[in-house]
Amino acid sequence: MDEIRYFLYTLRPSRLERLSEGPTPEEAAIISEHFAYLEALTEQGIVLLAGRTLTTDERTFGIVVLKAESQEAARAIMANDPGVKGGVQRAELFPYRIAPMARL
To answer: In what order do the strands lie in the sheet with 5-13?
Structure first.
């Protein structure tokens, strides 16, 4: 088994207007599945942190920090995110190193 490593994927909306004008019913359903997916992975200890900026312009993005045994495993988690699978969000994966971290 490989050692546990950390990864971060960024999420950007495929349709920016979703953030300022609201989602279509299909987008709303997909985003609901996206949240449920991340909550389940958080409960399993895979996702450490997820959230997004509060901006609604082209600079907005979300992040998901997770742990996985390999880049391929992290890529599979990202690819199976309903927001990505459903085409509502575009994602990009990065290896990540946690430096100082506060204990919450």
So the answer is: 47-52, 62-68, 5-13, 89-96
CA–CA dist 14, 96 (Å, integer): 24
Alpha-carbon separation of residue 84 from 3, 33, 79, 90 (angstroms): 26, 11, 6, 6
CA 103 to chain centre: 22
In degrees rounded to 5, what are phi and psi of residue 93? -100, 140
Alpha carbons 70 and 103: distance in angstroms, whole number: 25
Tell me the per-residue pLDDT of 45-100, one tens digit each, with 9 for 90 and over.
999 999 999 999 999 999 999 999 999 999 999 999 999 999 999 999 999 998 88
Three-state SS string across 33-93, please? HHHHHHHHHHHCCCEEEEEECCCCCCCCCEEEEEEECCHHHHHHHHHCCHHHHCCCEEEEE
Residue pair 49/65 in contact (Cβ under 8 Å)? The answer is yes
pTM of the model: 0.91
